[in-house]
C-alpha cells in the first residue's frame, strides 16, 4: 500500500490556511499537510523557491498539491516547479470535502494505485458540489 | 434581469473568511457578500439566529448560500433556516472558482433565470476541479 504521501494546499491569500484550519477542525491535526498562502506582494521567484522548499521538507514518495483554480498564480507556480516530477500531482478547484476524503483514505491505508487515488479525489470533490435543497428533497420526499 | 442577489459563505472555522478574502483579492471588494465562520463553541440556536440575521440584513430578492459540505453543521443550519424560503438556494462543496463565476455573472447583469444561474454555478464549480498536469499536457502536447 502507498502511504508516504504529502499534501500541499496552495492558494490565493488566506484560503489555504482557512482550508487547513477547517480540515483539522473536523478530522484533527495531521502530519504532512502544508498550507502556502500566495500573496501578490511576493515575487514569482520567491514563491517558486518557497514551494520547492516545502516539497523537499515533506520528503515524501508522492506529493499532491491542491490549488484554487486553473490559470491562477498558485496553480502556475505549482506547474512550473512540478511539471517534470512524475511523483507530484496537482489538483485544481480544491474544496474541503476532497481534502477530508484524501486524508481519510490515506489514514485507512487503502491506496494501491496513486493515479486511481488522485482521480477518486477529483471525482469525490466534484460530487460534493450539489444543490442542497434538491438533494434533501429527493432524499426525504421522493 | 435579476440583479438583487446576496451571497452568504458559511463554513467550518476560518474557511469562509479565507474564501471571501481570496475572492476579493481577485475580483475586488463586492457588496452583499457575507462570510459566516461556524465555530463549535457556539450553540445551534445562536448560529441559526446569526444566519437569519444576516439574511435579513442582506435584504435581497434572492440569496445564495455557499457551504462547505453536505451534512456538516454549516449546511444543516442553512437547511434548517432556509428550507421553506423558495428564494434562498444552498450550494455545497464551495470552491473559489464558483464564487468568482457567480459574482462575475451577476456583475455582467446577465441573469435571466435564477434556477439556471444556480445550476450553472454548480456545473462551473465542478468543471474547475481538474488534474492540472493532464489539462496542461492535453493543451500543449496533443
Q: What is the ordering of alpha helices and beta strands of chain A?
A: EHEHEHEHHEH
Distance between the termini of chain A: 41 Å
CATH secondary-structure class of chain A: Alpha Beta
**The CATH topology of chain A is what?**
Rossmann fold
Major β-sheet profile of chain A: 4 strands, parallel
Helix content of chain A: 40-55%
* Poorly predicted runs of chain A: none
Question: Main attributes?
Answer:
homodimer; 6 helices; alpha/beta; 142 residues
Care to describe what's here?
Two copies of one chain form a homodimer. In chain A, helix 1 packs across helix 4, helix 2 (44-58) packs across helix 3 (73-82) and helix 4 (96-107) runs antiparallel to helix 5 (114-127). Chain A has a single domain (5-141), classed as Phosphotransferase system, mannose-type IIA component (Rossmann fold, 3-Layer(aba) Sandwich). The N and C termini of chain A lie far apart (41 Å). Chain A contains six helices and five strands, in the order E-H-E-H-E-H-E-H-H-E-H. In chain A, strand 3 (62-67), helix 3 and strand 4 form a beta-alpha-beta unit. Chain A is of the alpha/beta class and 142 residues long. Chains A and B meet through helix 1, helix 3, strand 4, helix 4 and helix 5 of A and helix 1, helix 3, strand 4, helix 4 and helix 5 of B. Strand 5 of chain A pairs antiparallel with strand 4 of chain B, so a sheet runs across the interface.
